[in-house]
Amino acid sequence: xxxxxxxxxxxxxxxxxxxxxxxxxxxxxxxxxxxxxxxxxxxxxxxxxxxxxxxxxxxxxxxxxxxxxxxxxxxxxxxxxxxxxxxxxxxxxxxxxxxxxxxxxxxxxxxxxxxxxxxxxxxxxxxxxxxxxxxxxxxxxxxxxxxxxxxxxxxxxxxxxxxxxxxxxxxxxxxxxxxxxxxxxxxxxxxxxxxxxxxxxxxxxxxxxxxxxxxxxxxxxxxxxxxxxxxxxxxxxxxxxxxxxxx
Length: 247
Hints:
Largest sheet: 5 strands, mixed
Oligomer: single chain
Structural class: mainly beta
CATH architecture of the largest domain: Sandwich
Distance between the termini: 47 Å
CATH topology of the largest domain: Immunoglobulin-like
Strand order of the largest sheet: 3-9-8-5-6
Helix content: 10-25%
Shape: globular
Number of helices: 2
Strand content: 35-45%
Order of helices and strands: HHEEEEEEEEEEEEEEEEEE
Radius of gyration: 23 Å
Number of domains: 3
CATH superfamily of the largest domain: Macroglobulin (MG2) domain
């Protein structure tokens, strides 16, 4: 009887070890896919990574004033082992950054390249990954445009929250929800690309958008011109997600 119990115990231990090994392997395969920047760009996770800039804490998304450089301190809930900082122009990767054994924070200085990353639609996307625990967190940062005509004021109702902004506004929401933006003067919408849904209006002042998956920058243009001769405009960026990442 003791021999049977001993053999049974060995079998159960082996079974548990095998399951643990399979679970670890499957998690590693998952993170292997996630750490590929091309695969990451296809994901539509909710942006919820915490970060600090100039003494202010943000979670997931932010619109920042234009500067020559930004000291970004990532404040993840877990110690991350892989970071990706990506703009439409370039990508910077840190694999196993040496930021101390117990220090979760990670600091990165982002300096937009003059004449390229300091104007137009040039958001900064951040991905923070942990290979061992398959934790992941993401952030999306928009910037005020260096072009002076991108300074039209708008009021946005995003997820029920009201915000007023000049030039650039940002809204993160789940795919398919309806968001609103309205202006003090009549505006037109520029061409909408990348499969983004078309904003709808009845009077040119009040607009509604049923959000599409991913990033959708919308340009609204008024009849009024800036002193440089170009029409006043506002960029409204909507970031919609279908998944919530593991934290």
